[in-house]
């Protein structure tokens, strides 16, 4: 948190605008559009809420199929099930660790032949790295399938000079406490379709009809962002570029110090854009390095340094065990060998050196 966030929050308290509406919410939506290039935006209580609304707005319902990236957090697929639909997972490519466009093409061709096209595609932009959007959008348009971009982890990244999340029918973002900017909890839904975003706001505010009494013709949700948290978001937006620079510097320091070790490869930055490096991630070949990711994770934990495996692919999650997956080998390999390093925007040189020295210490013991 910085000074501007506190000023905006104080203003919310001073004017008694505490509820999930207010001038900070309106301003946050407008300023978010200015920063990202989105046409219209609705601020909501979480990225998951934004994705739930997005799926409902494009007509996903009971019995629908929705194609989704497999290498991602469960929140990318959970809202599909809220609506009675079933996720179908697509493997990653090696270039970006995101959805493989060729596998998506094959999946849609096969489903078109049997007359069973999915209702939507949820494309996740992972760890600050944009997926290769153009071929994915092209094949979605070819079959008339709406594209929802889950850019929860990719605010501050670019794809061919534009912000991931602004290409498809709907984009969603998260401001959870671990994201590159945070409102402690919150999210944003964006679209070029003004009416669609207006409908999102309506549904997110309990779908209350315009009447002097409380009247409801549709089922709604309590999903709007509070004016207080929107004030925090306004302050955070002002330092987004600084946060991206700090995250990219973390990667550069780690890469410079560890990139030449046998068996270590860092998550690549695809040529079609700039990653925000929200998290610095690497893979480790245990035969070449001498230790696997779990051994390294445990060794660092003993020094009070937290690391984590990369996301466990959703097709391997017990809750999605019955769901189809197209491919899966790449995501499974990345999960088996991948590790996320401490990546906070406020890491000091001393912090980074402590992580680096701990990994070097593991290597010296096994080499």
From TrEMBL:
Its cofactor is pyridoxal 5'-phosphate. GO terms for biological process: polysaccharide biosynthetic process. GO terms for molecular function: pyridoxal phosphate binding; transaminase activity. Keywords: Aminotransferase, Pyridoxal phosphate, Transferase. InterPro entries: DegT/StrS_aminotransferase, PyrdxlP-dep_Trfase, PyrdxlP-dep_Trfase_major, PyrdxlP-dep_Trfase_small. SUPFAM superfamilies: PLP-dependent transferases. The modification N6-(pyridoxal phosphate)lysine is found at residue 179. Pfam families: DegT_DnrJ_EryC1. The active site is at 179 (proton acceptor). It comes from the Bacteria. PANTHER family: DTDP-4-AMINO-4,6-DIDEOXYGALACTOSE TRANSAMINASE, TRANSAMINASE. Belongs to the DegT/DnrJ/EryC1 family. This is Putative pyridoxal phosphate-dependent aminotransferase EpsN. The lineage of its organism: Bacteria, Bacillati, Cyanobacteriota, Cyanophyceae, Nostocales. The gene is epsN.
